[in-house]
């Protein structure tokens, strides 16, 4: 058979009237490709293969670079409960950073396969738009056998479960999908990468220099470094972590680009690193040459085994077992504060159920599943079909590397032919959690600024080492490697401007108050201020600076509870804005061609927008530190200020300044690969801004009405 129909070895034409039911195991060996299509300028391609069933991707091969006759020799096993759906095979040319090019596709009709025998198959690749074009072929071998034993008893590491109908909701299917999600989400280790520098890169700009940045890719995970302008030997000094999954392999792809404003960035070179060749629990200093040009990229790579992430049923809850809980408490006790500083603690999340969710499907139901994110750790539940009140009853365990992290729980509606629909979200700072308390959280919108329909029930426990948590507070926070690109937003610009204006107005009000003392607007106030000024200046010592801040923190701790409530109400009023995402998307689609011509203006706009956000956030974080918004951080500030007070009181200032200068000048000599940071800014980055305080605040549930009652009383 030619074209989109896959020729089967048996030569049987697929008969659509035959309905094959039951459980089957399909073993596929992807051997090689022959005379594949050219998609790159060099007369070659970088092909990889996707297998899809019922519209979902079930397997993706590795990429073979620069080869039109690639040899994969990869195997995968699929568990099927229906043979009526054909296996859709698609071949693509991999282009890092760009959209991959289509190289052809074919169908393999499973009902025509002879069972319990290995059959060689040749798939002729075709393009539906150009059916006469020769795109080469793929060589496979397939074995289809009936499978009678339960899926859980004989699971291969690459086995995937596919269901006959996306709208069927049975207990057995939910259990299978639960096991599938659990297996596919857990990782076998963490890859810590420190991007140090580049050497002798090629110039890409007319001035003989480049503006280089680096992109990393490990399976579905991506990370992009900052851009270092006008240099051929950039110093990045960035550190980030990626997860090493069982399914995605261990090849780290690295590409170097030159940033160009207003046009497509220039490609400088690329290299690959096979992580399986590196020994674990050891830091490797690597100088990787770029394959397609001159130059090197210098990395520090450390592979660490991870056993702190898990998914289980409620019947297997780690912290509910007294013996296991005692071991975990022992691991994070104060006596072990200096061992493995990155292992701060552990958080266990019980996802019980949700009620009154939004109906996202035309039948008035939804197919909800729940996604939990803690920094770059992302796990999800199985899908409960046709249900607005789903029960998941799953337990998730995360390793805590930063006690100031925020647990994000998002509920989605699964769709067969498109991306999942958003149903609601809640953000919970780990320091706000009360252990062992089952709480109902009102779901919020995407921006976390207002409520949406539905309530989710969670029970969370956090165990952590206080000393490690304090030490990790003054090191750079972990950055998310999967984040949305910033977009031009007039609304966000106005919001950030108002935040900066509000901080400046506070400073102006203090200045006005001080100036009123000089102007003698109140004789009593001016006399007291004058006497206080004379006494302080006459007896001033440097230790009084942290002591004054310490007194301010203590004052706010005891006397500012009412003012905090008032500020909370003002923040709620300020962040009640209309959601105009749909209008913005329409305008972007209408003026897309025009916006392409204004990349330079967009870059400036986004820079100003981000700068306003940065300034406003720092001002709000300083205020929130003294307002006891996060008591842990305020207590930590008290500890630091007490220490500073004692040091400055006992030790002359000149000796402290001398020690600081010696440390600053010798830091690079002691560790050439030291990543610079500012402890004060790292501390402030853990303090939530007013926007984050608003996002993390829990919405109150009306105890008199459940979501089901509200829906019955208000059918609209």
Question: How would you sum up this structure, described in words?
Answer:
- With 716 residues, the chain is an alpha+beta fold.
- It contains 15 helices and 26 strands.
- Strands 7-8-1-4-9 form a five-stranded mixed beta sheet. It has a five-stranded antiparallel beta sheet with strand order 18-22-19-26-25, covered by helices on one side. A four-stranded antiparallel beta sheet has the order 3-2-5-6, with no helix packed on it.
- Strand 5 (87-93) and strand 6 (101-108) form a beta hairpin.
- The two termini are 54 Å apart.
- The model is unreliable at 1-21, 149-178 and 577-592 (pLDDT under 50).
What's this model, at a glance?
With about 725 residues, the protein is α+β, with helices and mostly antiparallel strands. The chain contains 15 helices and 26 strands.
Given as residue ranges, the uncertain stretches (5+ residues, pLDDT < 50) are 1-21, 149-178, 577-592
The count of β-strands is: 26
Helical residue percent band: 25-40%
Strand % is 25-35%
Radius of gyration: 30 Å
Helix/strand/pairing category? alpha+beta
Shape type = globular
How is the main sheet built?
Answer: 5 strands, mixed
- The number of distinct helices, counting runs of at least 4 residues, comes to 15
End-to-end separation in angstroms reads 54 Å
The overall pLDDT average reads 78
Major beta sheet, strand line-up: 7-8-1-4-9
């Amino acid at each position: 058979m030619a074209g989109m129909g896959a020729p089967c070895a048996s030569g049987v034409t697929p008969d659509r009237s035959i309905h094959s039911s039951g459980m089957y195991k399909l073993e596929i060996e992807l051997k090689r490709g022959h005379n594949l299509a050219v998609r790159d300028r060099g007369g070659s391609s970088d092909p990889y293969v996707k297998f899809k069933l019922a519209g979902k991707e079930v397997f993706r091969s590795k990429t073979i670079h620069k080869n039109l006759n690639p040899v994969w020799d990869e195997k995968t096993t699929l568990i099927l409960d229906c043979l009526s759906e054909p296996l859709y095979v698609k071949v693509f040319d991999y282009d890092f950073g760009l959209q991959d090019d289509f190289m052809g596709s074919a169908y393999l009709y499973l009902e025509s396969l002879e069972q319990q025998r290995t059959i060689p198959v040749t798939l002729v690749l075709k393009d539906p738009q150009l059916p006469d074009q020769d795109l080469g072929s793929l060589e496979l071998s397939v074995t289809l056998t009936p499978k009678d034993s339960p899926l859980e008893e004989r699971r291969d590491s690459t086995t995937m479960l596919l269901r006959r109908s996306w709208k069927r909701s049975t207990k057995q299917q939910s259990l299978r999908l639960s096991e599938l999600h659990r297996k596919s989400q857990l990782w076998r280790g963490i890859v810590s990468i420190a991007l140090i520098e580049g050497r002798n890169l090629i110039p890409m700009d007319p001035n003989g220099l480049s503006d280089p940045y680096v992109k990393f890719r490990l399976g579905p995970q991506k990370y992009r470094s900052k851009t270092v302008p006008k240099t051929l030997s950039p110093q990045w000094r960035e550190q980030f972590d990626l997860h090493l999954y069982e399914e995605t392999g261990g090849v780290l792809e690295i590409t170097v680009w030159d940033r160009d404003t207003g046009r497509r960035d220039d490609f400088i070179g690329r290299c690959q690193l096979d992580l399986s060749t590196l020994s674990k629990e050891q830091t490797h200093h690597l100088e990787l040459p770029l394959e397609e040009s001159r130059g090197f990229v210098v990395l520090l790579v450390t592979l660490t085994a991870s056993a702190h992430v898990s998914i289980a049923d409620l019947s297997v809850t780690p912290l509910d077992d007294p013996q296991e809980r005692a071991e975990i408490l022992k691991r994070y006790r104060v006596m072990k504060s200096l061992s493995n500083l990155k292992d701060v603690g552990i958080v266990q999340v019980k996802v019980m159920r949700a009620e009154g969710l939004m109906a996202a499907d035309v039948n008035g139901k939804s197919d909800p599943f729940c996604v939990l994110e803690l920094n770059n750790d992302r796990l999800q539940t199985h899908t409960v079909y046709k249900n607005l009140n789903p029960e998941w009853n799953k337990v998730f365990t995360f390793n805590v590397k930063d006690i100031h992290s925020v647990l994000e729980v998002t509920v989605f509606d699964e769709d067969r032919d498109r991306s999942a629909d958003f149903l609601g979200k809640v953000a919970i700072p780990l320091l706000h959690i009360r252990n062992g308390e089952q709480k109902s959280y009102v779901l919020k919108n995407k921006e976390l600024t207002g409520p949406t329909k539905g309530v989710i029930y969670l029970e969370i426990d956090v165990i952590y080492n206080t000393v490690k948590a304090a030490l990790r507070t003054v090191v750079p926070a972990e950055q998310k490697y999967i984040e949305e690109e910033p977009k031009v937003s007039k609304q966000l610009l106005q919001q950030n401007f108002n935040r900066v204006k509000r901080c400046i107005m506070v400073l102006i009000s203090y200045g006005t108050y001080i100036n009123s003392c000089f102007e003698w607007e109140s004789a009593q106030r001016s006399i007291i201020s004058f006497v206080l000024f004379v006494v302080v200046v006459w007896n001033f010592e440097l230790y009084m600076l942290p002591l004054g801040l310490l007194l301010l923190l203590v004052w706010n701790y005891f006397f500012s509870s009412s003012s905090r409530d008032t500020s909370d109400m003002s923040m709620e009023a300020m962040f009640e804005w209309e959601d105009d995402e749909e209008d913005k998307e329409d305008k972007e689609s209408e003026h897309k061609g025009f916006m392409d011509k204004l990349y330079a203006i967009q870059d400036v706009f986004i820079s100003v927008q981000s700068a306003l956000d940065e300034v406003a956030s720092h001002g709000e974080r300083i205020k929130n530190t003294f307002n006891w918004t996060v008591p842990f951080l305020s207590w930590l500030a008290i500890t630091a200020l007490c220490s500073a007070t004692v040091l400055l009181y006992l030790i002359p200032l000149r000796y402290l300044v001398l020690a600081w200068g010696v440390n600053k000048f010798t830091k690079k000599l002691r560790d050439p690969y030291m990543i610079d940071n500012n402890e004060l800014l790292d501390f402030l980055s853990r303090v939530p801004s007013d926007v984050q305080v608003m996002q993390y605040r829990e919405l109150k549930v009306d105890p008199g009405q459940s979501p089901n009652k509200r829906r019955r009383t208000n059918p609209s």
